[in-house]
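Recall that a protein's primary structure is simply its ordered list of amino acids. Everything else, from secondary elements to tertiary packing, is in principle encoded there. The following example makes that idea concrete.
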Amino acid sequence: MSDDLALARAAAANADLISLSRFRAQDLVVTTKPDRTPVTDADVAVEDIITSTILASRPHDAILGEERGSSTKSTGQQPGRQWIIDPIDGTANFLRGVPIWATLIALAIDGNPVVSVVSAPALGQQWWAATGHGAWTKKTGHTEATPLAVSSVTKLEDAIVNYNSLPGWIEDGRESNVRAWATSAWRARAIGDFWPYMMVAEGSMDVCGEADLQPYDMAALVPIIREAGGRFSSLDGDDDIWHHTALATNGLLHDDALELSRRSAP
């Protein structure tokens, strides 16, 4: 697993060279995918360099990426080793010049993410984890990595919660749920994409959740949250990344957050 983590970080380093060179580029090429979400030339180039880096060392591993799809016939959970890639999580931010975006790389074994890297070069920070090896972060220019640990907040009324996209909750039929979250917490925020999950792992936020997600949006988040001492599930409590929603907490608040986020909640 240490070797896999080193490979993931090497792939992220290669990706950062491309993504940073295209960030705020005047000739950035932007198109629209069939689902009406934007994609840039950087998204495709980053995914390609990550895939080529991984397959050079792991030629028999399966790949699932946001832009190129699956290297197998299925886009779902795979038996054995499967790398799951989001080349630029936060493409809307990327193309508008907002620095909140990151490359997400994860290795799943039988559908369960066990190694991951989240690299946000425009923010100057990287996070990584592997099962049994802890979760870590390092900022650009620092030589030493810092271990991650979730907060010790035990009550939602004292917590900072993040719900990311309000329309996503509404479209998923959970408008009453997100209202309950926002009114039950000390503070409610709507910071998008990967960053609030990393803040949960760092202990500066306590709960983060959203709907309308794909496996490549979540896979790299899971080992970091769990190795930092937190919990990760769907909004309905499924303990995986294959149900299109996410709930990450410090662990102490997970059951309380689930009580409000489940579809059966009032």
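The longest strand covers residues 81-89. The CA atoms of residues 25 and 70 lie 29 Å apart.
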